[in-house]
Amino acid sequence: MGYDLTPQGLHDLAEGAAVLGTGGGGDPYIGRLLVEKEMAAGRTVHIIGADELPDGALVLPSSMMGAPTVFVEKLPSGDGNAAAFRALEEHLGRTAHAVMPTECGGLNSMIPLMLAAQLGLPVVDADGMGRAFPELQMQTFGVLGVSGSPMAIASDHGDTAIITAGDNKRMEQLARALTIQMGGASYISDYPMDTADVRRTSVHGTLTLCRRIGETLREARVTHADPFDALTKMLAGTIYSLGTVLFQGKVVDVERRTVDGFARGRARLEATGDPGDVLEITFQNEHLVARRNGTMVAIVPDLICTLNTESGAPIPTESLAYGQRLTVYGISTPPIMRTPEALACFGPAGFGLPDAYVPLEDL
Amino acid sequence: MGYDLTPQGLHDLAEGAAVLGTGGGGDPYIGRLLVEKEMAAGRTVHIIGADELPDGALVLPSSMMGAPTVFVEKLPSGDGNAAAFRALEEHLGRTAHAVMPTECGGLNSMIPLMLAAQLGLPVVDADGMGRAFPELQMQTFGVLGVSGSPMAIASDHGDTAIITAGDNKRMEQLARALTIQMGGASYISDYPMDTADVRRTSVHGTLTLCRRIGETLREARVTHADPFDALTKMLAGTIYSLGTVLFQGKVVDVERRTVDGFARGRARLEATGDPGDVLEITFQNEHLVARRNGTMVAIVPDLICTLNTESGAPIPTESLAYGQRLTVYGISTPPIMRTPEALACFGPAGFGLPDAYVPLEDL
């Protein structure tokens, strides 16, 4: 049951996680190096399905919190996640059976793999976002009634805190304030869950999906196939169903600030061969909305991915730069992320956007 | 042993606490109303000396955190302190024998009285500041080796957190960030101590001292005696030893901002009958330094109190206003607050002031 991740599988998973990071979530590259270090030391990353958990087991997620622009400059120590995980176990007075991602997109796909290898625990093949989101309350777990707290947070300086918040949005605000004090990046363990909650509230199979996205892009490179066609074919058989090219062009402007602990900004692209055809992407860590000549072509929680037009390699917002040739690729989110409750939490309204949500398929 | 506080004793204690608040610490008036409410409900405030604690007992301080300017607009609920106190008990897995102030100056003289009455516990007649200070690491407890954390913090919205920080200064930074998110005011319990630490590291008898200061000012009003002479006579027999009038004049300018969770600013006074004779006070919640025509006349941790020239009534910085006739009154701090370690923590260097500490007696 389950499977051990191979070094090649880890590479693929990291690339797929960068695609589902939709420009944010932090570059998985850094996290991949941390997992490789564990593997090189002889440790194993064992991935299991939510259906393989014993009934009544405690599962604790593990992730990093902060602005991706900070992760690039301040590398994770590799110790903080265990500190947060252990602090939460101690607070709950229970031992965890498995680690789990909250966010399969970006750096946070890698963090639970590293921690699981360190602790000798399995990783559950599921998460609470099916992509990356910038805030802690933006989780299917919470939308479906799981409390994010008590949560644990740790710094690189030996500080830990346990937050028990009145609701998940306040948990986010309190944890964000601590994260900023902790240097803009922190290690957290939130949404403690038992097996039944994991099965009921998570987006299933997302680590394996990341791995398959990475595999698809890698194979397309080897066979000189069109990476976007390959991706679209592969996604058609998954809970994500639709993947489609939204725009191809050149980056002509990027505006990016790290404010309130987030990377916020906008990117502007001109279509290949037609400078009058313009796509603008707005982001808060992740890409939130894409408008082509003023008309919306994709909006959160559907995924807006910025991929290198040659190779299909995902480009995070912190690496966006003038002159890059990009393909903007849309992916539809799974049904569990499109309920009215889910959209209120992490749809356009959750980000203060004035637009109504329109599914990618209808645009 | 010990004594029950009378309604008159509470009034006196609140006024004395405002004197030792040195312009900050929040106006005890608000806290006094909360204690009066408990007394009116038939509950008792029982004050005991540190020497009356049984050996090995757990003592938990209780206080509010935030800018005095916020306390004026957002009144304490009266419930948050119990939430923080209980959260810390639960985290430690122990039951507290007594409540204690960390800060006998200002509002935080009243908070432990209210909580002790609510919980039916005694209050220890001692604190960690002997006055008011703006930051959590500024305590004789910490200077003498007690860890401020684990500490508990609670909001008015049902949120609690337990912070375990690498040192007391980081505890302050993390708790301050949460306090700002909690609306600029929070309820905390920090520096959990046993009897031996309380006896060794606290400034003793400060609640009773506050009560005697208030009593002295009240009696001076009744007998039409000079309140400052009366205060000076009374202090001469205490660990504070010296009280002296530094300046008498009129407020001509006040500059005050609430920034980073603190009330910061300056006040300018002109001497009665000589507008060319000017005193300037700099404050961060509390008065830090007083300079007369550019020459320092008192500096932290000695106390710089702004008192109404007619009545001796203390005026907090948030109430300073143009035209007030004030007496600036200096009080020397007890020896436990003047060691090199103490001065490094809450002397001029602790506040980033360039001046060297000179005891009030030598100025």
UniProtKB/TrEMBL annotation, chains A, B:
It comes from the Bacteria. It holds the Pfam family S-Me-THD_C. Gene3D superfamilies: CV3147-like, CV3147-like domain. Residues 167-360 form the S-Me-THD-like C-terminal domain. Residues 10-164 form the S-Me-THD N-terminal domain. This is DUF917 domain-containing protein.
